């Protein structure tokens, strides 16, 4: 078998004894696939579905579990899984941990799909498919943007990556580009795509669900510029701020911040004025953020059917929970990082702090699961699979049946010593009751306008404009607190420190798959201390190793430094 691009090799190529010179009359090939306008749409959209799938699984693990907010501890033997999650937490992963190959292959599959479709659509005569030249250019621009989104994530994870711009007829990958070359490539792709992308408000964009627009592409460019100091040691905060101001000012369409905290994540968020780019989700089709690689396994066993009243899928699994803010004696830990639930409790009138509860008719309150979870008109309380009644704590240990007002004798608290009471759970996207019409219909909001406000606020903060930064943050934060709340930042920004800014990024984007990147940008990922995590000996783990399975089929690739 020929050595070809590693991601295609691992996902697309089959070996057989077929006579390759045989003329096949009953096969669809790249030469005869595009016959109608609908075929063009099919090839255009293929990479979008794959892209939606890549928000969860290995990619989510690599962004959240090495950071200071989420954990997958060993719960009395459950979720030990060969120690892979402990290694993620401790930054001791190796190239043989599956996610190091998985994310590379998953994201490069997206690159290959986008590039294949791009080559297809670039090659057609649009008139033969009842398409205008403008429509063809728009498809091409969206595919370039989609590919840039994959590359930005690969760049962030691995830094030293291949830039693939052709797949048809290619038999092997390329050598790795330098970080500077990759940065310029992504930057150029997004800038060149911009003129041909639609803008929110253009004719037809009211049905533009899950499609890239000018604001979406420019937010990706802002992400690149925001992290440029990390990626290539260049300061692009001023460029980043310019883009964000343009988006906020409506240059790329009219977007606004929602007044209700949960609206950006609710079942009708495809119509939210805060949504810049989202992947469409429905109960009957794609709903990847609701799968076990993300939010579905962010609850105790049996919580969906018993506590939430969502019976369509059976039980859940406590894979992802918040890291603890308190020790076994219920005393807050002294370190500054981590402690996500404590960071929320710092502003005690935050409406998100309510315990999650479905209210019926596609509505809910609260964002967290903690304490006793009662159901059946409070006659029953959720229990663990080992028989003890759950009292979910912002602590980690073996509490078993210990009531909330008592302290267990066992003081051990680490990734290898947790029970099913350990760690608060987050439910950002709702799981409504089975009888509710829109039970899991929320789109996955990959880009929200809130990100643009927070990005601009950070740029202003770094430029010394703390008052402007506080105002921008408060424009989003005010939806979480009552009118006149003291939890809003003072107008002069006097309480806004670098640590508070990092904490606020963590509150707003908790569980949205970006925490590792933010910690690195604030120089805390390798130097910081959080629960069961001491500072690293050096900074080589700020990027991941290229997985062993990838290197095996791609001999032209060189392993990242330190691995």
**Unreliable runs, pLDDT <50, ≥5 residues?**
1-21
Strand order of the largest sheet: 1-3
Percentage beta strand: under 5%
Q: How many strand units?
A: 10
How would you sum up the global shape? globular
Task: Please describe the biggest sheet, giving its number of strands, its sense, and whether it closes into a barrel.
Answer: 2 strands, antiparallel
Q: Roughly what percent helix?
A: 25-40%
- Content-based structural category: mainly alpha
Q: What is the structure about, briefly put?
A:
It comes from Siphonobacter curvatus. This protein is mainly α. It is built from 17 helices and 10 strands.
Task: Give an overview in words.
- With 563 residues, this protein is mainly α.
- It has 3 domains: 1-13 and 36-178 and 526-563, Serine Threonine Protein Phosphatase 5, Tetratricopeptide repeat; 198-290 and 446-518, Alpha Horseshoe (Serine Threonine Protein Phosphatase 5, Tetratricopeptide repeat); 306-439, no CATH class.
- It has helices spanning 6-11, 37-53, 58-64, 84-90, 98-123, 133-158, 179-193, 214-226, 228-232, 237-248, 303-308, 340-345, 449-462, 466-477, 498-508, 515-521, 548-553; strands spanning 70-71, 275-279, 321-322, 357-358, 364-365, 368-369, 374-375, 380-381, 425-426, 444-448.
- The strands form 5 sheets. It has a two-stranded antiparallel sheet.
- The longest helix has 26 residues, at 98-123.
């Amino acid at each position: 078998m020929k050595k070809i691009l590693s991601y295609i090799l691992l996902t697309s190529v089959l070996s057989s004894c077929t006579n390759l010179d045989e003329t096949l009359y009953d096969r669809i090939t790249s030469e005869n696939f595009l016959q109608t306008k609908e075929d063009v749409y099919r090839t255009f959209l293929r990479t979008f579905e794959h892209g939606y799938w890549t928000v969860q699984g290995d990619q989510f693990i690599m962004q959240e579990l090495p950071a200071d907010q989420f954990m997958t501890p060993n719960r009395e033997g459950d979720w030990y899984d060969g120690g892979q999650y402990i290694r993620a937490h401790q930054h001791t992963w190796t190239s043989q941990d599956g996610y190091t190959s998985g994310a590379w292959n998953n994201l490069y599959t997206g690159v290959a799909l986008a590039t294949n479709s791009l080559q297809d659509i670039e090659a057609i005569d649009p008139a033969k498919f009842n398409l205008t030249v403008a429509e063809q250019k728009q498809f091409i621009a969206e595919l370039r943007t989609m590919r840039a989104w994959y590359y930005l994530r690969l760049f962030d994870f691995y830094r030293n990556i291949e830039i693939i711009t052709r797949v048809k007829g290619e038999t092997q990958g390329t050598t790795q580009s330098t970080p500077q070359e990759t940065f310029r490539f992504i930057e150029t792709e997004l800038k060149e795509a911009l003129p041909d992308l639609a803008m929110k408000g253009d004719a037809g964009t009211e049905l533009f669900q899950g499609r890239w627009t000018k604001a979406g592409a420019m937010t990706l460019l802002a992400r690149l510029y925001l992290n440029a100091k990390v990626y290539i040691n260049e300061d692009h905060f001023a460029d980043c701020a310019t883009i964000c101001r343009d988006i906020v000012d409506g240059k790329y369409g009219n977007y606004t911040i929602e007044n209700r905290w949960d609206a950006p994540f609710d079942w009708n968020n495809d119509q939210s004025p805060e949504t810049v780019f989202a992947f469409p989700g429905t109960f009957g089709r794609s709903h990847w953020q609701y799968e076990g690689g993300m939010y579905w396994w962010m609850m105790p066993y049996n919580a969906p059917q018993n506590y939430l009243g969502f019976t369509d899928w059976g039980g859940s699994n406590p894979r992802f929970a918040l890291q603890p803010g308190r020790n076994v004696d219920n005393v807050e830990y002294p370190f500054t990082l981590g402690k996500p639930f404590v960071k929320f409790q710092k502003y005690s009138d935050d409406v998100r702090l309510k315990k999650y509860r479905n209210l019926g008719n596609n509505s809910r309150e609260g964002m967290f699961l903690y304490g006793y979870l009662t159901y059946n008109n409070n006659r029953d309380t959720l229990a663990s699979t080992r028989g003890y009644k759950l009292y979910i704590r912002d602590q980690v240990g073996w509490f078993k049946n210990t009531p909330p007002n008592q302290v267990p004798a066992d003081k051990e608290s680490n990734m290898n010593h947790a029970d099913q009471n350990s760690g608060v759970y987050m439910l950002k996207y709702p799981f409504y009751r089975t009888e509710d019409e829109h039970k899991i219909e929320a789109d996955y909001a990959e880009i929200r306008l809130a990100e643009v406000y927070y990005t601009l606020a950070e740029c202003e903060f770094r430029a010394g404009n703390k008052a402007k930064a506080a105002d921008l943050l408060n424009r989003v934060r005010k939806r979480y607190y009552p009118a006149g709340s003291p939890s809003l930042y003072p107008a002069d920004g006097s309480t806004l420190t670098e640590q508070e800014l990092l904490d606020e990024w963590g509150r707003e984007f908790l569980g949205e798959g970006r925490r590792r990147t933010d910690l690195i940008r604030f120089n805390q990922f390798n130097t910081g201390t959080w629960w069961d995590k001491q500072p690293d000996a050096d900074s080589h783990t700020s990027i991941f190793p290229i997985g062993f399975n990838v290197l095996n089929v791609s001999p032209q690739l060189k392993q990242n430094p330190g691995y």
